[in-house]
Amino acid sequence: MRIETDQRSSAGAEGPTRTRRFRVFRYKRGDRGPRYETFDVPVEARTTVLDAMRWIQLHVDPSLAIRHSCSHASCGTCGVRVDGREVLMCVTPVEDLGREITVEPVANLPVLTDLVVDMRAFYARYPDEHPLVRESELLPGAKTPEGIATYVRYEDCIECGLCLSACPIAATDDRYVGPAALAAAERIVEERRGADLAALLAWADEPDGVWRCHAIFECTRACPSDVRPAERIMTLRGMLARGHAPMEEAR
Amino acid sequence: MNRRDDADLPWLAERERPGPVLRKGAGMTPLAWFDPRGRALGSFAFALNRITALGLVLYLYLHLGVLSLLLRGEDAWGDFLRLATTGAFLGLDVLLLFGLLFHGLNGIRVTLVGSGVVPERQRALFWAFTVVGVLALTAGAVRIVGGG
Amino acid sequence: MLSGLALLVLAAIHMVAHHFVVEEVGGLRTYRQVLDYIASPVMFTLESAFLVTVTAHALMGVRNVLLDLGAGPRARRRIDAAMWILGILTVGYGMFLVGTLASRA
Ligand code: HEM
Ligand code: SF4
Ligand code: FES
Description:
The complex is a heterotrimer.
Chain A: E1 18-26, E2 35-43, H1 49-59, E3 79-82, E4 85-88, E5 100-104, E6 111-113, E7 116-117, H2 120-123, H3 162-166, H4 168-172, H5 179-190, H6 197-204, H7 218-222, H8 229-241
Parallel strand pairs in A: 1-5
Antiparallel strand pairs in A: 1-2, 3-4, 3-5, 6-7
Helix pairs in contact in A: 5-6, 5-8
Chain B: H1 10-15, H2 41-71, H3 74-84, H4 87-114, H5 122-145
Helix pairs in contact in B: 2-3, 2-4, 4-5
Chain C: H1 4-25, H2 31-39, H3 41-67, H4 73-104
Bound molecules: protoporphyrin IX containing FE, iron/sulfur cluster and FE2/S2 (inorganic) cluster.
């Protein structure tokens, strides 16, 4: 099979399609345990891991379950681990990877099926009493367009769960609140918008909160959205250490 | 005094659902701390910090044990000194010095970064402290082995 | 509870203490030398302070490693108790050691 390529935009990507071998993590409810299945997938210069997974769905196994939506790194649904590193499938070119590519769901969250994890265990880590997606404030007299009741403020975090997957402490301690939630808390401290700061800081100032972090910075490296969770955790700690909030020292 | 109880950790309940949870490490979960695959500088520093820390704790108790020999008088101590100045033992001393230096310097780095003083510069600090550490280790090794 | 901060502060103190000790060492070798060294009130105090801080730091460190394994509130209380006991034993024995040695000088 030969796939026509657009000569203008794919200079350097010449010749017949090559194939790459994908080792994909498979698990369905009721299975004894997970297994890995291999697929040989034809790839081109700009094929992404997401393209490859969809190719498998279309041509080999429609039951391969994945999550994705936007295809341009803004929805955060397509987070997986490729060769052990946390990435968004939609912006990870196959080109840069090896001959055999291992694709697994993110770590430290329960797998529902194949590459899909149960994100409830991720969202449940956010403190309920501090809503993290906020409405925008409008200038006096400003109006929203027809049909749009209000804008919701965009925050950097795309809730992909990659940071939690990358964290070696989250790997051993399920009680740890994790990078994303702590980073979100720091974001609120930065711009509080009526939040109850003392309560929020008390929430963060817990053995399972900022103090469980060991400044390893894997979360910052994993984050595709430049949230830099580790730096934010450190900043929170600094605030707590300097007594910007009720310190609860010795038990 | 608010201590978190499991009831307050809703994601733990989610964890009870069927479905495997992928972890790093080979087999045993704590090995995730020391699993270098696909990890960056920070993990390496953390893993080595933890290993040297546990090594130092072991040494602390060894040290206390050895010092007990002092209680048994001059002869026991002299015997120990002869053993302690053999080549292999001095090698262990250099290892100890490495452990102390790495753990101590990394500790200072973690303190600076971890208390929010310089939350952004952890990598630069790591390499700066590495230079200091290597110099100190070399000087120390020369003194130990060279009978200083 | 933890606090990681206390650990950090302690580590700093310990650093300072440690530095003093290292400065003063300059070739502790024989039995006599060690006894004379520990008998000096300054060094005695320093060594004792050192003992307490190192032990505290080391045990908090071990506690931290254990907590990273995901200890719940109950396990945490047990670990705390174990660390306290071990700490008191360690410091107790250490003090006995320096004390005895100093009195022999
Ligand atoms: C020389 C000065 C020292 C400094 C500045 C220092 C600093 C630190 C710091 C900042 C940590 C926290 C690391 C983290 O949160 O990941 C730590 C952990 C630890 N330290 Fe030290 N330390 C020193 C000496 C020692 C000694 C002599 C011992 C053993 C007797 C020791 C045992 C430990 C242990 C067991 C841990 C826990 C390890 C971990 O959490 O991974 N430290 N140290
Ligand atoms: S902080 Fe970054 S890595 Fe973590 S969930 Fe948000 S976008 Fe993903
Ligand atoms: S599909 Fe939206 S981030 Fe990848």
